[in-house]
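Usage

Read records sequentially. Each one opens with the input sequence:
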Amino acid sequence: MGGQQVQPVFILPEGTLRTKGKEAQKNNIAAAKLVADAVRTTLGPKGMDKMLVDSLGDVTITNDGATILNEMQIEHPAAKMMAEVAKTQDEAVGDGTTTAVIIAGELLKEAEKLLEKQIHPTVITKGFRLAKLRALEILEKLSYEVAIKDEKSLKRIANTAMTGKSAERASEKLTDLAVRAVTRIADRKTNEMDTENIKIEKKQGGSMSDTELIEGIVLDKEVVHSGMPKKLEKVKVALLDSALEVKELEGDAKISIDSPEKLQAFLNEEEKSLKDMVNKVIKSGAGVVFCQKGIDDVAQHYLAKANILAARRVKKSDMEKLTRATGAKIVTSVKELSRNDLGYAGVVQEKKISGDEMIFVERCKDPKAVTILIRGGSEHVVDEVERAMEDAIKGVAAALELGKIVPGGGAVEIQVAKQLRKYAESFKGREQLAVNAFAEAMEIVPKSLAENAGLDPIDKLAQLRSEHDKKRTATGLDVFTGNVHSMMNLGVIEPLKIKLQALKSASEVAEMILRIDDMISAGAGEKQPPMPPGGMGGMPEY
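and closes with the structure output:
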């Protein structure tokens, strides 16, 4: 009995990979740092672009952090968590995705140094949490107020969001469009706004400067009948959720027709039913009909005879935007349509854009939904302008939501780092090291801006720290001249909300990754089919 060997106990299936302790932490931190390094060179006005080619060979050229990480098809679980940071930042505020990812990467890099000094991950995460809360307070104090009437500041926010992207060439016009679009849909009493009410329609052809704001909605649809008018002015608009068609029979119901007379009577009745529907539309006073479902050929004919413009199979989202633009109500049954349900448009017309017909619903009275029609020389240009425009729109909206802005160019990061170092002195334990590490990580933003502009990051950080010691808290790095200036004077400003969200997301993902000390990956191998009795055997005998 004494010499009997103890059998090892297996609790995980064969093929499972398990990494524990420091090795697991190192793996996760290395993966997270690689993700941060992948997007770091895109930060700032002098940041470079990435070319991403997917499995089908489709090419995307961008310097938008969220787009890059989304297209990269990341496999490593810790790296996926970093990609989620960019996604969350993009969904929450629309910009600052690269900032969030590189701060998270730098926090982990600083944490790795502390782990090598035998400091426990829970101590580091506690210090990071305290530093994050303090940093959020500092950011609030560094902010300036902005109002919806302050168009100059709003244009600067939009311009800062666009700088460094391909759309920068036409940034003056595009920033003006972004600000006009946001202020148009904003509720001036509550400052509430839903950027979903800004529809972005893109068509290649022309140039970026041909991009325009339509005070209404553009539909990628054509007029259903050639006999209908192509342009109507000062017209009433009806929105129908039901089809202008005769309903199909439900279930197993059948109609029995055994003579030509009965067939003709059936067809006449069907036509009368469609004519009644159209008469209801005519009676309401509608000159334009947008239908979410189909419109029968006969109904099209009668609508055309009545000089009514109609479009069918309009998307639900577009119908909702048309409601906000024209003031019309969506009616579920044409029988219920009345004059009170109609909206108004100054002009409804069909235009040919790059070979495709589109319907423009313009000059609406106080529209709460508008369209930006983006133009560009190629598909890649149009896509990049769209991304830049979305960043600008969401940036302006985020600034108005909190009503606060902060200087850009790494100014707030330098000031947060400075005040965190002072805050660290109030701790006597090892948390002090973690708070200092958080402060060090914050400086990655001005450091990356300097590196991407081909400047010496050590010199520039020293200059920035010196200026901030003189209480010039708005001083940041002007990457175009290589000098340090007041970012408020230069007009390099960002919404406070973007900075707050980036800091929260980066800190939380770093804390989560640091707390992992065991990685268990299930085996990806397929189960082998069972072997036939007696092994593989030879050739069958006949």
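Summary fields computed downstream for this record:
- The chain has a mean pLDDT of 84.
- The chain is about 45% helix and 15% strand.
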